[in-house]
Amino acid sequence: MGVRGLWTLLEPAGRRADARALRGRRVAVDASIWLHQFIHATTDDDAAAAPARGFFRRIARLLHHGITPVFVFDGAAPGLKRRT
């Protein structure tokens, strides 16, 4: 899953940003990573609701800071990748 070596390639261009610096901007969110985090990190008895609750809280936090999230979901694997 993912592109091998992508983070190494992108790291020099990356920088931490305070939420105030992102106010009024759109930010791409890897929805698959959020889902993975919420599904595998939950200790709730109601584990089925944890991903939705986690999504809601993070969305609310972004909106509170004036940041518009744009969610990116994984699509079907391209033919070349399916053969690996």
TrEMBL record:
Keywords: DNA damage, DNA repair, Endonuclease, Hydrolase, Nuclease, Nucleus. One of its GO terms (molecular function) is DNA endonuclease activity. One of its GO terms (biological process) is nucleotide-excision repair. It is found in: Nucleus. The keyword DNA repair applies. The keyword Glycoprotein does not apply. Gene3D superfamilies: 5'-nuclease. One of its GO terms (cellular component) is nucleus. Coiled coil: none annotated. Residues 1-84 form the XPG N-terminal domain. Belongs to the XPG/RAD2 endonuclease family. XPG subfamily. This is PIN domain-like protein. It comes from Ostreococcus tauri (Marine green alga). The lineage of its organism: Eukaryota, Viridiplantae, Chlorophyta, Mamiellophyceae, Mamiellales.
